[in-house]
Design goal:
The chain is of the alpha/beta class. The chain is built from eight helices and eleven strands. It has a single domain, classed as LarA, N-terminal domain (Rossmann fold), CATH 3.40.50.11440.
Length: 246
């Protein structure tokens, strides 16, 4: 039997022996939202555990929207445009907003990659910038004696920090999204390296790594990322979950 498996931006065909395959396991997921624009706007107006975003951005002049980079950039063109339109309607216009890609220690984007990531309208009509792990970072109080904490100056100096990303399984942090956009996404190279060393620490009583997929409680990597992100006091988080086929 043949199966097509995701690989990069496409798929590869894999031939499996009929007698060696007992079945294909797939998750049971709800159907995708029919109108993402309406759903996102509704969530911004009536979020979980927060005031409406319209109240949060009122009067703010240095809004920073943090998004994933191209390595984790699925669906940004779905959720970023309604977020930007919402901000503009509620007084956070293009002159007040910077879209900052959380590249961590990854390379920066080419112009073509940046446009493909956020869409032509955002790329050419808004301020879009990449984080640089080697410059433009403010040194803050260390997270502990082994972990320096330097973060992108634009995020530190913002008066409204908004995180917009995808919640997904992460092989070390338990789940992606949220706090990972700040740490390691906006951190200096030295901080990124120190944070990732936490993934090599602590094995539980059953001999498994505590830093592993789908585990938050007792996960030392998740815990230090969360502690780091809370230092910057993000004002709002928009998290989306993707369908099985993206």
């Amino acid at each position: 039997m043949s199966q097509h498996m995701r690989y990069g931006r496409g798929t590869v065909k894999v031939d499996l022996a009929e007698d060696g395959c007992r079945g294909i396991l797939q998750p049971t997921l709800p159907p995708p939202i029919a109108n993402p624009n309406e759903a996102i706007t509704r969530c911004l107006d009536d979020p979980v555990g927060s005031k409406p975003l319209s109240q949060i951005v009122a009067g703010r002049r240095k809004v920073v929207v943090v998004i994933p980079d191209v390595t984790r950039g699925e669906a940004i063109q779905v959720y970023l445009p309604p977020l930007l339109r919402y901000l503009e309607r509620h007084g956070a216009g293009r002159e007040n907003v910077t879209i900052l890609t959380a590249t961590g220690a990854h390379r920066t984007h080419s112009d073509a990659e940046r446009e493909a990531l956020v869409g032509a309208e955002a790329a050419h009509g808004w301020t879009v910038a990449d984080h640089d792990p080697d410059s433009g970072n403010d040194d803050l109080e260390p997270l502990d004696e082994a972990t320096p904490f330097a973060v992108d100056k634009r995020a530190v100096e913002s008066d409204c920090l908004i995180l917009a990303g995808v919640v997904s399984y992460h092989y070390c942090a338990g789940f992606g999204g949220g706090r990972k956009l700040i740490a390691p996404g906006l951190c200096s190279r030295a901080t990124v390296q120190a944070l990732h060393r936490r993934t090599l620490a602590n094995i539980d009583a059953e001999g498994r790594w505590r830093s592993r997929t789908g585990v938050l409680r007792g996960n030392p990597f998740h815990e230090i990322l969360e502690r780091a992100a809370l230092r910057l006091k993000p004002a709002f988080a928009l998290n989306v979950a993707l369908s099985w086929d993206r």
